[in-house]
Model the fold of this input.
Amino acid sequence: MKRVSTPWIAATCILIGLCVLISTGCGKKAYPVSPGQKIPVQHATDLQARMLQGQAELVWTVPASPAVALSRFVVYKASRALSEGECKGCPLLFSKLSEWPVISSRSGVPVKMRVLDPVETGYVYFYKVVGIDTAGLSGKDSNVAELAVP
Done:
């Protein structure tokens, strides 16, 4: 009896095995991260809002000597009429208010940023800021500062 050589069977088994490995992936599922972003961008954690001469004054600290140089902060704003009452757990729809360049964040000394925003009476305003580095990558959102203007 003649023995039949079957290299195609071995090749088929290897091909099927590779297809199974590729289709299952590594199993690690998460939101995508920019490959160039190795060090997280610093973010403000002390955003405060208060009334000053009929306007909202926003103040926060630029982190001293961050590992990644910040180029600007983007300020976001959301509002709700006081007549609507309090809505715990309702999502806030933030819109971009303005962008502000960072004067110096690598000096080793914390820098205070200050922004004024005109407001109307009868609303509750919510603000947050996001740091953007020199490569255009954004950091985490700051804390949300709330300001009621009766």
Observations:
- The chain has a mean pLDDT of 82.
